[in-house]
């Protein structure tokens, strides 16, 4: 189900008059962000999913069904707003309340309401169902910048540091990523740098055994030292990916947050990774690990999730998010608040990499973690 590709796509066939050429994903001209109508994942371009039911593969249709079911608690209270016959101030007031109850946040709610009202006005809409469709479009547009692929294969190894608070599903998410990556043929090395919680090492060890990948673990060792050893081993053994599990902690635990900064600094001291296919506009510093710093957040926590994103970003400069447990919450609107924060962050600090949502989870099974698609999410939310 995952759209990971370790190897380059084969050269595209010469274009025909009715079939434009698809560029190589790792060519000099390939941008980091995918062109309209395509998705850059791994080192291949793939055609995005047409959301019409007839075009969906059975696997993706199953995922969308799970996503709709998972977001039902969030979407139910919003959808009831559109059951009347009039578009009036009362409808907009009810919609504002519903979005706030879904933990969209005050500022994101104001943004969405303004966009919906504009669409209603410009489109000459007269029925609440049309307002619902306008809201789907507004949410999809707001979330679209969060829809970026996790690129694997640009560096060897690609070092991914994963963090988050206890209970967010961090180690489980690492295990699922490992399974999907290994299933696509990528060689993965796990770093059990969560040395404070014995169960974390054991849990990661189970995933390593299940997926037949190597793991670097040290009971009671220094997390930074374990991370350094794992990245060094990953380089020496020619691994494609090194996934570093870190200790769960609250952002208010300043001494532990400082330890995360230390881990990142120590990982960087392993030196730049190999670059199988150098990009002309890439800086040598780009190859210095970690290449990704991901935060796993629990969708149940609502606005507290946004606070975690801000705190961990201040400490580590995040490069991506994994949002879990959206099936158990009525607070899925927090993604809108995160999207608005990410946009403002990009304007205020353009030198930093964006913070997209790489994956979302709606269950405990392996197939319940999938790549994030803004349009899918918006449609599932108000299905």
Question: Can you describe what's shown?
Answer:
The strands form two sheets. An eight-stranded mixed sheet has the order 5-4-6-3-7-8-9-10, with helices on both faces. A two-stranded antiparallel sheet has the order 1-2. It is of the alpha/beta class. It contains twelve helices and ten strands. Helix content is 42%, strand content 12%. The longest helix is centred in the first third of the chain and has 18 residues.
Give the SSE map.
Layout: E1 39-41, E2 44-46, H1 58-70, H2 72-79, H3 89-101, H4 106-123, H5 128-143, E3 158-163, H6 170-183, E4 188-192, H7 198-211, E5 214-217, H8 223-236, E6 241-245, H9 254-268, E7 292-298, H10 303-316, E8 320-324, H11 334-348, E9 357-361, E10 369-371, H12 374-381
Parallel strand pairs: 3-6, 3-7, 4-5, 4-6, 7-8, 8-9
Antiparallel strand pairs: 1-2, 9-10
Helix pairs in contact: 1-12, 3-4, 4-5, 4-11, 5-12, 6-7, 8-9, 10-11
């Amino acid at each position: 189900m995952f759209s990971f590709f370790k190897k380059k796509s084969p050269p595209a066939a010469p274009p025909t008059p009715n079939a434009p050429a698809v560029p190589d994903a790792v060519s000099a001209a390939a941008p980091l962000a995918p062109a309209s109508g395509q998705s850059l994942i791994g080192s291949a371009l793939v055609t995005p999913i047409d959301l019409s039911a007839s075009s969906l593969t059975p696997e993706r249709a199953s995922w969308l069904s799970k996503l709709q079911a998972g977001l039902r608690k969030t979407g139910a209270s919003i959808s009831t707003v559109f059951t009347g016959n009039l578009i009036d101030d009362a409808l907009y007031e009810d919609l504002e309340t519903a979005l706030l109850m879904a933990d969209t946040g005050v500022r994101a709610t104001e943004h969405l309401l303004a966009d919906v009202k504009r669409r209603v006005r410009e489109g000459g809409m007269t029925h609440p169902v049309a307002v619902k469709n306008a809201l789907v479009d507004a949410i999809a547009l707001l979330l679209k910048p969060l829809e970026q692929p996790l690129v694997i294969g640009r560096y060897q190894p690609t070092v991914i540091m994963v963090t988050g608070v206890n209970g967010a599903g961090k180690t489980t998410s690492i295990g699922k990523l490992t399974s999907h990556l290994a299933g696509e043929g990528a060689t993965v090395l796990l770093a059990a740098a969560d040395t404070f919680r014995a169960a974390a090492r054991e849990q990661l060890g189970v995933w390593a055994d299940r997926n037949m990948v190597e793991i670097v673990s040290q009971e009671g060792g220094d997390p930074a030292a374990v991370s350094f050893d794992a990245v060094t081993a990953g380089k020496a053994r020619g691994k494609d990916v090194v996934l570093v599990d870190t200790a769960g902690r609250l952002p208010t635990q300043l001494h532990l947050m400082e330890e995360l900064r230390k881990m990142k600094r120590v990982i960087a001291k392993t030196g730049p990774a190999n670059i199988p296919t150098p990009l002309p506009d890439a800086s040598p510093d780009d190859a210095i690990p970690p290449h990704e710093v991901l935060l796993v957040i629990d969708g149940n926590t609502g606005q507290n999730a946004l606070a975690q994103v801000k705190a961990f970003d201040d400490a580590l400069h995040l490069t991506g998010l994994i949002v879990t447990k959206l099936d158990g919450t009525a607070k899925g609107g927090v993604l809108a608040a995160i999207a608005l924060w990410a946009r403002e962050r990009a304007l205020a600090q353009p030198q930093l990499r964006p913070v997209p949502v790489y994956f979302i989870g709606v269950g405990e099974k392996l197939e319940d973690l999938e790549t994030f698609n803004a349009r899918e999410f918006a449609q599932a939310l108000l299905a």
